[in-house]
Specification:
GO molecular function: phosphorelay response regulator activity; transcription cis-regulatory region binding
CATH topology of the largest domain: Rossmann fold
Radius of gyration: 18 Å
Keywords: DNA-binding, Phosphoprotein, Transcription, Transcription regulation, Two-component regulatory system
GO biological process, one term: regulation of DNA-templated transcription
Number of strands: 12
Largest sheet: 5 strands, parallel
Helix content: 40-55%
InterPro entries: CheY-like_superfamily, OmpR/PhoB-type_DNA-bd, Sig_transdc_resp-reg_C-effctor, Sig_transdc_resp-reg_receiver, WalR-like, WH-like_DNA-bd_sf
Structural class: alpha/beta
Shape: elongated
Protein name: DNA-binding response regulator
Length: 221
């Protein structure tokens, strides 16, 4: 998944970003609403972590604006406001969940995982296709009952492919979903990781394979 963290406290925003990236996902930062709107115009995101106390626009107005434009991205509110009224209003305006500051970073990640779940053979904390399963919480990959050792990038790519199992996925969309803005990576990073994933799946006897559609991208088979 790729998450946009909209939080004016840069230190807190970077802390959240590092925690999300450590789980193998991409995360970008916007320190105000204007930057957030710009980044949403140039990049596709799977979720937004939104502080209500932004310097240039109230977070509740941000939610109202996004939903009025028909933007369905899941929104997790962060708020230091003590009253319940703002939280209720935020949810009524279209936010999907909220956390009070201070918060547990593990709880934030768990809530994000819950918001990002897709209905592709989904059951509990698992994503499954054929005999290949990813436990979205532990990031554990199994073929039948056999554990596969995979790096964070490999797990992220496989998870993205499982979530988009019926679609042809371009290299560009994989790159955007996995790597944060400003992250330095070689042009063939996706191909190299994809080669490793295929080899590990094949050696484990996986019934799910990743095929290349020349000039377009990849698809599960």
């Amino acid at each position: 998944m790729r998450v946009l963290i909209t939080e004016d406290n840069q230190q807190l925003a970077e802390f959240i970003q590092q925690a999300i990236m450590q789980d193998g996902h991409a995360a970008d930062i916007a320190l105000d609403a204007a930057t957030m709107f710009y980044q949403l115009s140039i990049m596709q995101y799977d979720g937004i972590v939104l502080d209500l106390g932004l310097p240039d626009k109230d977070g509740l107005d941000v939610i109202k604006h996004l939903r009025s434009k028909g933007i369905p991205i899941p929104i997790l509110i962060l708020t230091a406001r003590g009253g319940i009224d703002d939280r209720i209003k935020g949810l009524d305006l279209g936010a999907d969940d909220y956390l009070n500051k201070p918060f547990s970073i593990d709880e934030l990640k768990a809530r994000l995982r819950a918001l990002m779940r897709r209905p592709v053979d989904y059951s509990g904390n698992d994503l499954t296709r054929g005999n290949v399963t990813i436990e979205t919480k532990s990031r554990r990959v199994t073929v039948d009952t056999q554990n596969l050792t995979m790096g964070k990038t490999e797990v992220a790519i496989l998870e993205y492919m499982l979530k988009h199992a019926t679609l042809t996925v371009s290299k560009e969309s994989l790159f955007d979903a996995i790597y944060s803005m400003g992250f330095e990576v070689t042009d063939n990073a996706i191909q190299v990781a994809m080669h490793r994933i295929r080899k590990k799946l094949e050696q484990a006897g996986a019934t799910t394979h990743i095929n290349t559609i020349r000039g377009i991208g990849y698809i599960l088979a």
